[in-house]
Amino acid sequence: MPETTDTATAGLAFESKTYTKKSTLPCKDVCTSVTIDIAEAGGAGVASDSINKSVFNVVRSIVHFGEQPANAKTYQEVMDSFVGAYDELKKKFPDDAMAWEAKVKSTVDYRSDNILNVKINHYTFTGGAHGYGGERSLIFNPETGKRLTRNDIFKDIKAFTAFAETKFRQKYKIPAGKSINSTGLMFVEDRYKLPDEIFFRENGILLFYNTLEVANNAEGSKDVLIPYAEAKPFLKIQP
């Protein structure tokens, strides 16, 4: 059974649930394990169901081994699949299989009358030189539970992208007129693009590039915060 802790925000109630599983195979210092901490929505009918389903689908896409996520219906099944894949490998290669690890935590990162922003922090290791961690942003309408797209959020994505590029260049000291990759970044086709993850924060919109998205592993993540006063002309919804 998961451990639970109650918290609440206006309109939706959130219950913190923790799911864990470890491999039962013999291990030395470190054993294969999964920990999933979820801020689960409740008390709002369809909206809660929609939010929880979206969060679950993202977690399932993160905690898996192989080309495709497991066809799991619950967090327990997600963990069973991950640990089961390790156990199979360990039985085939008992001397070579290093312990795996998966950690996922979802939190309500920002909340207003118009926006609910859930952050998913994650780390997985399934062998190799190093694991991979990052952050995911899920933005919802808190009344309906509908996940908001960029077209729902921005009036003109092209115009906002151009503005964001100027802010990015300023922060990372990339001269105007020079290639966006001129200082060693790795934007695809040498063209600036918005990050995969955009967060609403108390003081502005955070454009967050996970490790390896636009820079090498050693440089880590990149980010740019655009204050709401500057972002407001581009927004369809009031933060």
TrEMBL record:
It comes from Flavobacterium akiainvivens. Gene3D superfamilies: Fervidobacterium nodosum Rt17-B1 like, Heat-shock cognate protein, ATPase. Residues 151-228 form the DUF3298 domain. Pfam families: DUF3298 (PF11738), PdaC (PF13739). Residues 31-131 form the Deacetylase PdaC domain. This is Uncharacterized protein.
